[in-house]
Queue: 2 jobs
Job 1
Amino acid sequence: PRTLAPDALRQHLADELERVRGRSRGLTTDVLDEAELLAQHSRLMSPLVWDLAHVGNYEELWLLREAAGVEAVRPEIDDLYDAFEHPRATRPQLPLLRPDEAGDYLALVRRKVLDALDDLPLEAEPDDPAVPPLLRHGFVHGMVLQHEHQHDETMLATHQLRRGTPVLPATDRLPAPAALLRSAEVVVPAGPFTMGTSDDPWALDNERPAHVVELPAYAIDTVPVSNAAYRAFVEAGGYDDERLWSEAGWRWRCESGKRAPAFWFREAGQWLRRRFGRVEELPDAEPVQHVCFHEAEAWCRWAGRRLPTEAEWEKAASWDPDAQAKRRFPWGDEPPGEEHANLGQVRYRPTEAGSWPAGASAYGVLQLLGDVWEWTSTEFTGYPGFRAFPYAEYSEVFFDDGYRVLRGGCWATDPQACRTTFRNWDHPIRRQVFAGFRSARDA
Ligand code: AVJ
Ligand code: FE
């Protein structure tokens, strides 16, 4: 977006808004009836129609009222779709818009957004001072786009928890089988790197500002931990060995009674998994997903390793030691292409550990973006010099509250909502996210 002239930027924004809406419809009104859209498939999740109307309401708030100064379309529903007013478990009881009402509301908001776009000041030259910070390089439009993509990923987690006839495609467009790895881990020498960004136009507030971090040498896995490697821990009795777990982790293990990743089960001596309503053999070579932070941590202790810190993850993913420069993606600044990563809900599953050699980082680490979100050992907080922008409820209210940082995006993450600086976070006990991990050690 930084390099586009105003008209090209407008067109890009309009195209991307259209594309994300198609994605949202494909996860809601295109595939499920009214009863299923209004139902709560898990207490951890909202009814799908809540997510749908919520993204419309967010778009109204930010692109119409804030960015364009247009009068409110439906101010009376703001409260219903305010995530802080109503916890997920209580949302089915709210007087939600029905799916057809939600569809009409979204279409109306969108029509006004596209009308307003023509008259919004977007920069005619780099860093045009006439463009307000909210609009600079299409920032607020980028924020709204990323927000809807993030909710689409949340909707996919709801689909995974849903019981009933499968409705999502059973695509198996897998890449060429993974190559043999040259080594299981990569050593990253001690030294400084630049963490975060101050100039990525669509970076969200928690990715800012850029700051230098000095790290001692460490080693990090070349690929994410696979189902086979995780299964070895399960079969070795890892869930029964208190010494492998932190205090909070062992408490979670005992209270939850869990003994394997979510959606795994054993039948006649064979490990199977349920994926979007279909049962299949557990694929050995795929990165493990649906483990919580505590499980990731326990596996690492069992393997004599540890989780990487967030800074270690970002250095391995983004730093080019020869150029002494940061990359927006592990492979460079070129946007994700077919050959780089498993992103964008092209497949409804991770791809084998060791896939995507063209997506390797400068240090030779694979699959940093796409496939599975990766738990890090770092608690979510603001970088030095953090400033909430444009609102504290996106990031700041979650700081220093025990959330752990997840990095890298997964197979469901859209390329627009994914880069080496992007930060995700969740409670350490959550397993519905498409998350796995890789391990590290001091070198
Ligand atoms: C960044 C994925 C943790 O879903 O809670 C959606 C994104 N923020 N609506 C979330 C978000 C507001 C957020 N995560
Ligand atoms: Fe939201």
Job 2
Amino acid sequence: MTYETILVEPRGAVTLITINRPKALNALNSRVLDELIQAFAAFDADESQRCAVLTGNEKAFAAGADIKEMSDQGFASMYASNFFSGWEKVTATRKPWIAAVAGYALGGGCEVAMMADFIIAGENAQFGQPEIKLGVTPGMGGSQRLTRAIGKAKAMEMCLTGRMMDAAEAERSGLVARVVPLESLVEEALKTAETIARMGPLAAIANKEMVNAAFETGLAQGIVFERRLFHGLFGTEDQKEGMAAFVEKRKADWKGR
Ligand code: CO8
């Protein structure tokens, strides 16, 4: 598959996806969206791939939705095309993926980073929802995911003022899992992805589904969901293999079934 706006490189069991529109600070136009949908679907369908990393470049993860592409749209065309609903196909990815963010992650860029299972940030990362400065609001889940990630006070302040949050504040606030030196960002994200890729693939998906359920359900319901998935894994060969490998003091050989 040849892409125009992204690069896709399998690295062992990890797929590295790089947004590649450097002249536009990786602004997310419809071509980027279409290509990311295809790349994530291919990653999800490929049994040899276990985890993905999505990154940009040192200056920008993505500086937002493409303002030039959007500016002439009207309500009818936005509504009729359900503009940006395609991002739900990216969030439907079942296998785990990490956003490795350096530089600007603004507007849609911040929103795409928050679609990842978690974010690892380079020291120069800047997160923000500056849409208010353009007379609009977040439209790819930013107001919802940012509020769940960092709480109402900071999310509201960021959406209402458009201010940027640096990497240190993002880590303090729970938006990012870890901050690493810029020069080792992709390497660190790949290493983390390789760690996940070495786990049983069914357990990885189940862990992801459980943690995500915490955003969608109440505590009691979430705990039942967790317990049922936990019970379900006892019907897999990987559970037998994982526990036998522990007892026999050897590395597990996962089958993904
Ligand atoms: N869209 C299109 N082009 C962009 C974008 C963008 N979001 N961001 C930067 N670019 C382009 C610039 O136009 C410029 O192009 P050119 O060289 O042809 O003039 C090039 O990238 C380099 O940008 P700058 O010269 O501005 O670089 P600076 O280093 O001076 O500034 C900034 C960097 C501060 C990041 C600045 O570019 C900026 O403010 N960008 C816009 C940030 C922004 O407002 N993002 C939010 C966009 S709106 C959004 O994401 C809404 C999502 C939800 C919509 C839902 C609809 C349903």
